[in-house]
Amino acid sequence: MPNRALLELKNIGKTVASKLYQIGGTNEVELRKLGAAKAYQLLLEKNTEKQLPVCYCLYSLEGAIQDRHWDAFSENEKTELRLSAGFAE
Fold first, then answer.
1. Over 9-23, what HEC string results?
2. Which phi and psi angles does 35 have, rounded to 5°?
3. Considering the entire predicted model, what is its pTM?
C-alpha cells in the first residue's frame, strides 16, 4: 500500500490535516500507527481551547484509516470508537 498524504485520505481536509501534523500524524502510515482513538485523544490534549466534535473528528479519522465516509459507520461501530477513545456510554 502506498503511503498517501493526509489530504489524499477520505474525510481529511486542510483543517484536520494541520491538526494531525501537530501531533505527528503526517501521512497515512503515521495515522494508522496512531489509530483513530489515540489520534483523537492527542488532538484533544493539544487543542484544549477548542471543542473537537466526535463525529467530525473521531469518526473522520477512523474513516480515513478505513477509506470510508465518516457517517457510514453503524451505531455499534460508533459506540466502539467512542469507548476506545475513552468516552463513557
1. CCCCCHHHHHHHHHC
2. 80, 155
3. 0.88
